[in-house]
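Hello again, I could really use a second opinion on something today. Take your time with it, there's no hurry, and the full record follows here:

___
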Amino acid sequence: MDSYRSWILLALVLFVAQSDLRQYRISNRSVVITLVAGLALNTCIHGWDGIVHGCLGILVGFLLLMPFYVIGGMTAGDVKWLSALGAWYGPKGILGVFLVSGMILGVISILWFVSNRNRPSPVEPSDCEASGVDHQTGIDEVFNSSEKRRRLIPYALPVALGVLIIESMRMIASLA
């Protein structure tokens, strides 16, 4: 059963990552499907304890990203997505997904920064100051701009890579 669980989860996260890469959006439908499937699976395997475990994972996933959402560094879809994955992993597991995907996001961010450092900024700070516009734009403004592909990293990508690493290690461990 554990192998099926991993394959279903991998299919879900890869689908969501592909969608986020294309559209810079994590759909509510994907979030609900992931959340319900995680709770259902945990309930089938562990009964009442599975529901509690999944709900605590949802709460922890939400609390981990909420500060980043509040300061404008993430979208609500990112917060909901990690929360939904908490239904699969529970509180300790979702913390692991958060940490692994955070390290992957750090590497992607460094590579992104290095690849974009010689490109001119789409809006120079001096232009903004002259027009009275604050050059510290929020994520919503960047998200709705034509520059989003250059300025944003879809969060579902590092999460999918983190889940891929975790589930691969889980499957290898079950073979030993």
